[in-house]
Amino acid sequence: MDTEIKLKGDRIIEQIPSVNDKALRINLNENIYGTFAEIGAGQETVRHFFRAGGSSNTIAKAMSAYDKDFSDAVYGIEEDGRYVTESRLKKMLSHEVNLIEQRLSREKHPNKMFFSYANTVATIDFAKQFKGHGWVGISYQIEPDEDYNEIMLHIRFKETDVRLQQETLGILGVNLIYGAFYKYNDPKRLLRYLYDHLDKDQLEIDTINFSGPRFADVDNRLMSLQLVKNGMTDAVMFNPDGKNILPAAILYKKNILAFRGSFRPVTKVNMDMYEKSLKMFLNENKVEKENTLVVFEITLSNLRSDGEIDERDFMDRAELLCSLGQTVMISNFQEYYKVVEYFSNYTKARMGLAMGVNNLVDIFDEKYYRHLSGGILEAFGKLFYRDMKVFLYPMIGEDGEIITSENLKVHPRMKELYKFFKFNGKVVDIDDYDAAILDVFSREVLNMINNGKPGWEIMLPAGIAEIIKEHQLFGFEPNKVLKEVN
Questions:
Q1: Fold classified for 19-218
Q2: Among 19, 108, 253, 323, which one is most buried in terms of CB atoms within 10 A?
Q3: Gene3D superfamilies recorded for this chain (predicted)?
Q4: What is the Cα–Cα distance from 24 to 18, expressed in whole angstroms?
Q5: Portions of the chain given CATH number 3.90.950.20
Q6: Mean pLDDT, the chain, integer
Q7: CATH tag, 249-437
Q8: What CA–CA distances, in Å, run from 415 to 99, 247, 309, 422?
Q9: Nearest 5°: CA angle at 132, between 259 and 173?
């Protein structure tokens, strides 16, 4: 009998178990059994299970191979000599799972669901210049006879105290293990539960991957999208194969040329801007092709439809960009200077932004910088970082005139500021553009696709129309087109 009083107007509040209660619930389940391997920040996760009570039901082994020689002897040598890597975490999980299977007899433990939790972490350095980061993961079973599921994530510490970082890591570890066993049926909620008893000012999760039989239907690109949507990170990236990639790994010391757009769908204009600006960027001083990365950025606001993110629409765009061999970034950066600021965390090499005239005019609008104490001047100091350049793609004006950096109009108060950046070569025109396609706009192509109007195919790069039709992207319906033709 429920004796709790509920009043009219009460809201249901989800009761979040304490860290101790989570550890205790796992400990009291005699079928959950496994190992803990933690390197770099103490044994903070397993500590919670020891303190909760009943840990002998859960912990088969807890270890921490701090010394590099010991670690190499156990898990093998890393070719690049680095230890806080995804590769290291995979080796740790694989090794520990194999040991469990070798040393624990299934005849003796027929109902056990084995798991291995591991982390490899670097906390803040003594000089407090690098806040630290790490890889955290779990390999586990939901049924004794099934293959192992795996959840792996990369974290970046935001706190500036080693002890606080250790405590944060311990809580995250408990949340991950608890979520893996009790929230695996809803990966989106599992993501949010990783922050139980934690604040986003303590920790950033910028990469996550799910695999295994329980996550066979999970698209990790959508999980990346959730990280940005939930405010767990500012940006996520995935490669042309559609795989999540760690931003730090791919951006490190690279020359970066970035494009922002809706790409809904990607058009000939997008690709002309890409090809011509890349050609110019590669002619810049100290820019070598083999050390240059092109990034196609889609902002969170560009993914929203009526205030909500349309996941199908997101996947449609991702499929097309990946089919063109592009690296994609999803971000919550409204202003361009934040993109440059983000890239500058990982590289000191050259940077470029390719954009249309209308985007550059928006950049010179003061209303976007009222939240900054230094206003537009502060923003531009961050935007035109070092040798950053804007490669400007022209547009056709209302009177049919082609607008370039020479004749675009900004607010009268911004004229001299614009002239300064133009004179100093920070804004350069893309000259060899294809004038025949300047009247192609993504929104018009999308409208034609939605309404079954013929002729949109010629506005897209080679092969893109075929992909849209084959996979029925962006609301394409073959029957609707046939009706129009007939």
A1: Maf protein (3.90.950)
A2: 19
A3: HUPs
A4: 10
A5: 19-218
A6: 92
A7: 3.40.50
A8: 69, 36, 37, 10
A9: 100
